[in-house]
Amino acid sequence: MVLAQKKEVLPQVEEFKYLGMLFMSEGRMEREIDRRIGAASAVMRALNRSIVVKKELSRKAKLSIYRSNYVPILTYGHQRWVMTERTRSQIQAAEMSFLRRVAGMSLRDKVKLG
Question: Domain ranges in the chain?
Answer without folding.
Answer: 31-36+49-103
